[in-house]
């Protein structure tokens, strides 16, 4: 009888432990990711992970992964595959998140290629939002990249793919600049 109770207790304890481990293994926390998995990852809260470099007082470089303020659309617990990183022309040692790479025709060519654009939704979501922040519609950029890469870059630089501005004129109020505290 005593061994029967201990088997039930052990079974219950094992089940509880299994559920706890299952629940924690799937959770990605940016601050716990290694340098080689940080860039292009999305935490369990939906925040994009970014790799940052810090120089210590000794002059030694240290890298940390942290959650950015940028949220991924409909993605959580995601570490981008090596295949997507390669197909999209990305680098795992990328520091921060920037739209600057959209101005490079070689990068945009890889980003818009079928192996990247058609197979890597995390990367496309990231660059779609970065492009939108610059007033560029990524599908239109990719379409023109396919037709004439040089023209696509020149039009993007000259804001050729910018969304239309407001219909009504914007009114500005003059406000005195804030002074820094002494």
Question: What's the short story on this structure?
Answer:
With 182 residues, the protein is an alpha+beta fold. The chain has eight helices and four strands; from the N terminus they run H-H-E-E-E-E-H-H-H-H-H-H. It has one domain (30-157).
Write a structural description.
It is globular, with a radius of gyration of 23 Å. Helix content is 42%, strand content 13%. It has one domain. The model is unreliable at 10-24 and 159-182 (pLDDT under 50). The protein has eight helices and four strands. The chain is of the alpha+beta class and 182 residues long. Residues 1-26 form the signal peptide. Keywords: Signal. InterPro entries: PAR1 (IPR009489). This is PAR1 protein.
Radius of gyration: 23 Å
Structural class label: alpha+beta
Shape: globular
Question: Count the strands?
Answer: 4
Question: Main traits of this protein?
Answer:
two-stranded antiparallel sheet; alpha+beta; signal; PAR1 protein; two-stranded antiparallel ribbon; disordered C terminus; 182 residues; PAR1; 8 helices
SSE order and pairing:
Layout: H1 2-25, H2 35-38, E1 41-42, E2 47-55, E3 61-71, E4 78-79, H3 82-87, H4 105-111, H5 114-117, H6 121-133, H7 138-147, H8 149-157
Antiparallel strand pairs: 1-4, 2-3
Helix pairs in contact: 7-8
